[in-house]
Amino acid sequence: MADPLTIVGGIASFAQLLSLVVKTTEVVFTFCHSVRDAPKELKRIHEKLTCLNLALKNIEAQLTEVYEFEILPPDLCYVLHNSIDSVRKEVITLYSKFDIALDFESPSNPLRVRLKWALLERHLVSDTVDRLRDSEGTLTCALQLLNVPRLSRGQLQNTVLDVDSWLRKFGFFGSISQIIEPGNGQWESRICMGFKPPNWIYTKSITFDLIFANTGIPGKGLSILPGQIRLQNQVSLNSPLMMACAQGDVRLIRQCLNDGSGQVGDRASCCGKTPLLIALEGKHLNAVTYLLESGADPNIGDDNQM
């Protein structure tokens, strides 16, 4: 497992990425929230932005606790605090400067709304989704790092498909992790399952994540948090990008990504390792940082869910 302080280098671009997300999605958020007959695409983005907003609040609430536990160096805590504060200031500025062109309080003409969406909003939403996809992994990485104090208090139970099981032999992999906090009834379970068909049938692997949580508050019950489904290319460990990550050669990694000979979401067909995991194993911090800035998801494990 990667050392937490090694992962810290990967969130160096946290403020820049998150700032871009907030700037480019604020218009879409306001538009979607105000228009009752908004297209389905906007409603889905509205849900994503709601989760992003909750994540920001979570980070702000945990930052003080992380400082007290000395999980991160004080200088890094200070930078992270300033980054979150600057994002909030930018949101306030955007609210004050943004003028809504349509009067959303009056009944809107659905046809006019859809024409506006087709002509003016669709390209903006497309860019927004791309930026969200790149930044969500970085944001989640920061959240997990800030979540270390809770992990140290709680009991972690992890069940992984054994390498000798018949499921693994037929291409299935996965794990069920549960974090239980003693005394308050809070727990969180994450189910991660995947399947790697033979390369001659299909060259991609399929994985999905689902998270269940219980806050321990009476009447709240069980919550199902947003999950995701991934398709990853199955490649050899000797592929150009994998070899570049093993060597920590940032120049060669950049070249592989630019010419299309590899992608940050690739997965080794033999063991399930990603370019990011290989760079972490070699402790190549510059390569790790570059891969994260290029959109690598830090939450994708190998076949053993490391």
From TrEMBL:
KW Lipid biosynthesis (keyword) present: no
Pfam families to which the protein is assigned, alphabetical: Ank_2
InterPro entries: Ankyrin_rpt (IPR002110), Ankyrin_rpt-contain_sf (IPR036770)
Ranges for the ANK repeats: 271-303
Keyword Electron transport: no
Keyword annotations from UniProtKB, A to Z: ANK repeat
UniProt name for this protein: Fungal N-terminal domain-containing protein
Species of provenance: Penicillium cosmopolitanum
